[in-house]
Amino acid sequence: MDIEYIYRRRVLLIWFLTQQILPTQLELVQNNTNQLLSVSNPNSLDVKSVTLYDIAGKLIFNKVNLGAKTNYEFSTAGLSEGVYIVKLQTADSKEMGQKIIVERVK
User: Nearest-CA neighbor of 88 among 34, 23, 43, 31?
Assistant: First the structure.
């Protein structure tokens, strides 16, 4: 794989981590006991997409047109332990990114 390509993808991931446009309106929590990624949306914002990337920038999943529910849950049971980046986008194009850590609870 081209080194410049890897660098660009990592820069993009770091950018996602710093995008905290919606932190007071949405909360992302990785529950390792239940192997679930939970999104709390108390203001019922219209969520356009929730996207998960591994730390190398590989797309893990992209859930789209999720609507305006107050809570969303996504299984992380099939993921390897490690660091992942969640990108969330609302219908009005506001975004936030957050790092999560998936661990197996013994």
Answer: 23
**Number of structural domains the chain divides into:** 1
DSSP string spanning 10-43? Answer: HHHHHHHHH-BSSTTT-EEEEETTTTEEEEE-TT
Residue 76 structural domain: 3-102
pLDDT for 1 equals 55
Domain at 89, CATH number: 2.60.40.3080
**What pLDDT was estimated at residue 50?**
96
Strand partners, 102: 82
Residues β-bridged to residue 104: none
Mean pLDDT (10-residue bins), the chain, 106 residues: 63 59 76 95 93 91 96 96 92 87 89
Which single residue is written with the structure tokens 């529950």? 31
